[in-house]
Amino acid sequence: MSTVSQERLLQVLLAPQISEKATWVADKNGQVIFRVTSDAAKPEVKAAVEALFKVEVESVQVLNVKGKEKRKGRIAGRRKGWKKAFVSLKPGQEINFAGGE
Fold first, then answer.
1. CA 78, CA 73: separation in Å to the nearest integer?
2. Is this structure's pTM higher than 0.70?
3. What's the CA gap between 55 and 59, in Å, rounded?
4. pLDDT at residue 1 tops 50
């Protein structure tokens, strides 16, 4: 994985996506959801998760989330879109965001 710089790997993952759906997906499918940069590719996401959390990744699915339409009176606008990645971990692997040791 020398093609992707270490600096780039640190910038790909923005934050874990923690929600009811993310918790449900983690329990049911063994996947973890991350918010990633909008130009991130699947191999970059896989390399970043493996490097930062020291786990083995089985597969990655990405999804572009469209920004919501918002309006204030007559003025209509749109929030910025973003990308999220569903990362499937190999059996026996786990990422714990709650902290603790």
1. 14
2. yes
3. 12
4. no
Domains contained in the chain, CATH given: 6-89 (3.30.70.330)
pLDDT band at 3 (very low <50, low <70, confident <90, very high): low
Q: How far is CA 23 from CA 18, 32, 53, 83, in A?
A: 7, 8, 18, 18
Per-residue pLDDT of 14-65, as tens digits, reads 999 989 998 898 888 889 999 999 999 999 999 999 998 989 999 999 999 9
Handedness of CA 5, 61, 69, 22 (dihedral sign): negative
For 1-101, strand residue ranges (E) read: 13-16, 31-36, 57-65, 69-72, 75-78, 82-89
